[in-house]
Amino acid sequence: MMSNLFSVFDPSSSLFNNWISMLMGLMILPWSFWMFPSRVQVVFVNMFLTLNLEFSTLLGPKKMGAPLLLMALFSFILMNNFLGLFPYIFTATSHLAVTLAMALPLWLSFVLFSWVKETVHALAHLVPLGTPPVLMPFMVIIEMVSNIIRPITLSVRLAANMIAGHLLLTLLGNQGILASTSVVFIIVTAQILLLVLEFSVSVIQAYVFATLTTLYASE
Protein backbone atom coordinates (compact mmCIF):
# COMPACT_ATOMS: atom_id res chain seq x y z
CA MET A 1 0.00 0.00 0.00
CA MET A 2 2.75 2.46 0.93
CA SER A 3 4.79 1.59 -2.13
CA ASN A 4 1.76 2.20 -4.37
CA LEU A 5 0.96 5.41 -2.50
CA PHE A 6 4.37 6.96 -3.06
CA SER A 7 4.94 5.44 -6.51
CA VAL A 8 3.42 8.57 -8.08
CA PHE A 9 6.63 10.39 -7.08
CA ASP A 10 8.92 7.79 -8.66
CA PRO A 11 10.09 8.74 -12.18
CA SER A 12 10.46 5.08 -13.16
CA SER A 13 6.77 4.38 -12.47
CA SER A 14 5.51 7.15 -14.76
CA LEU A 15 4.76 6.99 -18.46
CA PHE A 16 8.00 8.87 -19.11
CA ASN A 17 10.56 7.04 -16.98
CA ASN A 18 12.99 9.98 -16.96
CA TRP A 19 12.95 13.74 -16.49
CA ILE A 20 11.75 14.49 -20.02
CA SER A 21 8.31 15.30 -18.59
CA MET A 22 9.69 18.66 -17.46
CA LEU A 23 9.71 19.78 -21.11
CA MET A 24 6.64 17.84 -22.19
CA GLY A 25 4.44 20.94 -22.16
CA LEU A 26 6.36 22.44 -25.07
CA MET A 27 6.06 19.21 -27.06
CA ILE A 28 2.30 18.67 -26.73
CA LEU A 29 1.35 22.22 -27.74
CA PRO A 30 0.15 22.29 -31.36
CA TRP A 31 2.00 24.45 -33.87
CA SER A 32 -1.11 26.56 -34.33
CA PHE A 33 -0.74 27.76 -30.73
CA TRP A 34 2.44 29.60 -31.67
CA MET A 35 1.24 30.83 -35.09
CA PHE A 36 -2.31 32.07 -34.59
CA PRO A 37 -3.79 34.12 -31.73
CA SER A 38 -6.35 32.45 -29.51
CA ARG A 39 -8.17 33.04 -26.24
CA VAL A 40 -5.58 31.00 -24.38
CA GLN A 41 -2.81 33.19 -25.74
CA VAL A 42 -4.71 36.32 -24.71
CA VAL A 43 -5.01 34.98 -21.18
CA PHE A 44 -1.29 34.17 -21.05
CA VAL A 45 -0.30 37.55 -22.49
CA ASN A 46 -2.42 39.42 -19.95
CA MET A 47 -1.01 37.27 -17.14
CA PHE A 48 2.59 37.89 -18.22
CA LEU A 49 1.99 41.62 -18.59
CA THR A 50 0.66 41.73 -15.04
CA LEU A 51 3.61 39.70 -13.73
CA ASN A 52 6.07 41.88 -15.63
CA LEU A 53 4.58 45.02 -14.08
CA GLU A 54 4.66 43.53 -10.59
CA PHE A 55 8.21 42.16 -10.86
CA SER A 56 9.49 45.40 -12.39
CA THR A 57 7.94 47.37 -9.54
CA LEU A 58 9.57 45.16 -6.92
CA LEU A 59 12.99 45.08 -8.59
CA GLY A 60 13.19 48.73 -9.59
CA PRO A 61 14.10 50.43 -12.89
CA LYS A 62 17.74 49.29 -12.91
CA LYS A 63 16.94 45.58 -13.24
CA MET A 64 14.83 45.50 -16.40
CA GLY A 65 16.12 42.11 -17.59
CA ALA A 66 15.35 40.25 -14.37
CA PRO A 67 11.53 40.09 -14.84
CA LEU A 68 12.03 38.02 -17.99
CA LEU A 69 13.99 35.42 -16.02
CA LEU A 70 11.38 35.39 -13.27
CA MET A 71 8.51 35.03 -15.73
CA ALA A 72 10.33 32.12 -17.38
CA LEU A 73 10.76 30.56 -13.93
CA PHE A 74 7.04 31.06 -13.23
CA SER A 75 6.09 29.47 -16.56
CA PHE A 76 8.37 26.48 -16.01
CA ILE A 77 6.98 25.77 -12.53
CA LEU A 78 3.37 26.30 -13.65
CA MET A 79 3.80 23.96 -16.62
CA ASN A 80 5.27 21.17 -14.47
CA ASN A 81 2.68 21.61 -11.73
CA PHE A 82 -0.15 21.45 -14.24
CA LEU A 83 1.22 18.46 -16.14
CA GLY A 84 1.60 16.57 -12.87
CA LEU A 85 -2.19 16.54 -12.52
CA PHE A 86 -2.51 14.21 -15.52
CA PRO A 87 -2.29 10.43 -15.01
CA TYR A 88 1.05 8.67 -15.61
CA ILE A 89 3.00 11.93 -15.89
CA PHE A 90 5.83 12.46 -13.45
CA THR A 91 5.55 15.64 -11.34
CA ALA A 92 9.08 17.03 -11.39
CA THR A 93 8.33 19.86 -8.95
CA SER A 94 7.45 17.36 -6.23
CA HIS A 95 11.15 16.43 -5.93
CA LEU A 96 13.66 18.45 -3.95
CA ALA A 97 16.25 17.72 -6.62
CA VAL A 98 14.32 19.97 -9.01
CA THR A 99 13.14 22.64 -6.57
CA LEU A 100 16.58 23.00 -4.99
CA ALA A 101 18.15 23.19 -8.45
CA MET A 102 15.95 26.22 -9.12
CA ALA A 103 16.17 27.95 -5.74
CA LEU A 104 19.82 27.40 -4.80
CA PRO A 105 21.55 28.96 -7.86
CA LEU A 106 19.26 32.01 -7.75
CA TRP A 107 19.79 32.52 -4.02
CA LEU A 108 23.55 32.03 -4.36
CA SER A 109 23.76 34.58 -7.16
CA PHE A 110 21.81 37.11 -5.10
CA VAL A 111 24.07 36.61 -2.08
CA LEU A 112 27.30 36.83 -4.07
CA PHE A 113 26.12 39.93 -5.91
CA SER A 114 25.09 41.66 -2.67
CA TRP A 115 28.36 40.92 -0.88
CA VAL A 116 30.57 41.83 -3.86
CA LYS A 117 28.75 44.87 -5.25
CA GLU A 118 26.82 46.11 -2.20
CA THR A 119 29.03 45.13 0.72
CA VAL A 120 28.04 48.03 3.00
CA HIS A 121 24.33 47.48 2.35
CA ALA A 122 24.70 43.73 2.92
CA LEU A 123 26.40 44.32 6.28
CA ALA A 124 23.80 46.90 7.30
CA HIS A 125 21.02 44.49 6.36
CA LEU A 126 22.19 42.06 9.04
CA VAL A 127 21.22 44.56 11.76
CA PRO A 128 17.71 46.03 11.43
CA LEU A 129 17.27 49.73 12.07
CA GLY A 130 16.65 50.59 15.72
CA THR A 131 18.14 47.40 17.17
CA PRO A 132 19.59 47.91 20.69
CA PRO A 133 23.38 47.45 20.87
CA VAL A 134 22.98 44.55 23.30
CA LEU A 135 20.89 42.57 20.79
CA MET A 136 23.04 43.29 17.72
CA PRO A 137 25.18 40.09 17.92
CA PHE A 138 22.04 37.96 18.23
CA MET A 139 20.31 39.80 15.37
CA VAL A 140 23.32 39.17 13.12
CA ILE A 141 23.10 35.43 13.83
CA ILE A 142 19.33 35.38 13.29
CA GLU A 143 19.58 37.30 10.01
CA MET A 144 22.36 35.05 8.73
CA VAL A 145 20.37 31.91 9.56
CA SER A 146 17.26 33.34 7.89
CA ASN A 147 19.26 34.13 4.76
CA ILE A 148 20.87 30.68 4.65
CA ILE A 149 17.58 28.76 4.92
CA ARG A 150 15.84 30.78 2.20
CA PRO A 151 16.55 28.34 -0.67
CA ILE A 152 15.53 25.44 1.57
CA THR A 153 12.20 27.02 2.50
CA LEU A 154 11.52 27.91 -1.14
CA SER A 155 12.17 24.40 -2.41
CA VAL A 156 10.48 22.55 0.47
CA ARG A 157 7.36 24.72 0.25
CA LEU A 158 6.87 23.96 -3.43
CA ALA A 159 7.65 20.24 -3.15
CA ALA A 160 5.51 19.75 -0.02
CA ASN A 161 2.43 21.38 -1.55
CA MET A 162 2.74 19.26 -4.68
CA ILE A 163 3.23 16.07 -2.66
CA ALA A 164 0.26 16.76 -0.35
CA GLY A 165 -2.26 17.17 -3.15
CA HIS A 166 -1.08 14.11 -5.05
CA LEU A 167 -1.19 11.99 -1.92
CA LEU A 168 -4.80 13.00 -1.31
CA LEU A 169 -5.74 12.13 -4.88
CA THR A 170 -3.99 8.76 -4.62
CA LEU A 171 -5.67 7.95 -1.30
CA LEU A 172 -9.11 8.78 -2.66
CA GLY A 173 -8.47 6.71 -5.77
CA ASN A 174 -7.42 3.67 -3.73
CA GLN A 175 -10.55 3.87 -1.61
CA GLY A 176 -12.88 3.48 -4.59
CA ILE A 177 -11.60 0.10 -5.79
CA LEU A 178 -13.87 -2.08 -3.63
CA ALA A 179 -16.49 0.52 -2.72
CA SER A 180 -20.17 0.50 -3.61
CA THR A 181 -21.70 2.58 -6.40
CA SER A 182 -22.87 5.38 -4.13
CA VAL A 183 -19.50 5.60 -2.40
CA VAL A 184 -17.70 5.65 -5.76
CA PHE A 185 -19.88 8.56 -6.87
CA ILE A 186 -18.93 10.49 -3.72
CA ILE A 187 -15.24 9.69 -4.19
CA VAL A 188 -15.25 10.75 -7.86
CA THR A 189 -17.01 14.00 -6.95
CA ALA A 190 -14.44 14.64 -4.22
CA GLN A 191 -11.60 13.92 -6.65
CA ILE A 192 -12.99 16.38 -9.20
CA LEU A 193 -13.25 19.09 -6.55
CA LEU A 194 -9.76 18.24 -5.34
CA LEU A 195 -8.41 18.46 -8.90
CA VAL A 196 -9.87 21.96 -9.22
CA LEU A 197 -8.22 22.84 -5.92
CA GLU A 198 -4.92 21.34 -7.05
CA PHE A 199 -5.01 23.39 -10.23
CA SER A 200 -5.40 26.52 -8.11
CA VAL A 201 -2.54 25.36 -5.89
CA SER A 202 -0.36 24.83 -8.98
CA VAL A 203 -0.85 28.44 -10.07
CA ILE A 204 -0.49 29.84 -6.55
CA GLN A 205 2.70 27.93 -5.77
CA ALA A 206 4.32 29.01 -9.03
CA TYR A 207 3.37 32.61 -8.24
CA VAL A 208 4.63 32.35 -4.65
CA PHE A 209 7.97 30.87 -5.75
CA ALA A 210 8.53 33.60 -8.36
CA THR A 211 7.36 36.41 -6.05
CA LEU A 212 9.54 35.33 -3.13
CA THR A 213 12.50 35.04 -5.47
CA THR A 214 11.77 38.59 -6.65
CA LEU A 215 11.60 39.83 -3.07
CA TYR A 216 14.92 38.19 -2.25
CA ALA A 217 16.49 39.78 -5.33
CA SER A 218 15.09 43.22 -4.50
CA GLU A 219 16.93 43.20 -1.17
Automatic annotation (TrEMBL):
Cell compartment(s), UniProt: Membrane; Mitochondrion inner membrane
Keyword Magnesium annotated: no
UniProt topology in membrane: Multi-pass membrane protein
TM regions (residue ranges): 16-36, 66-89, 96-116, 122-142
Cellular component terms per the entry's GO annotation: mitochondrial inner membrane; proton-transporting ATP synthase complex
N-terminal signal peptide: none
Keywords tagged on the record: ATP synthesis, CF(0), Hydrogen ion transport, Ion transport, Membrane, Mitochondrion, Transmembrane, Transmembrane helix, Transport
GO molecular function: proton-transporting ATP synthase activity, rotational mechanism
CDD domains reported in the protein's UniProt record: ATP-synt_Fo_a_6
Keyword Protein transport applies: no
PROSITE patterns attached to this UniProt entry: ATPASE_A
Family matches, as Gene3D superfamilies: ATP synthase, F0 complex, subunit A (1.20.120.220)
Family named by the database record: Belongs to the ATPase A chain family.
PANTHER family: ATP SYNTHASE SUBUNIT A
Name listed for the protein in its UniProt record: ATP synthase subunit a
Gene: ATP6
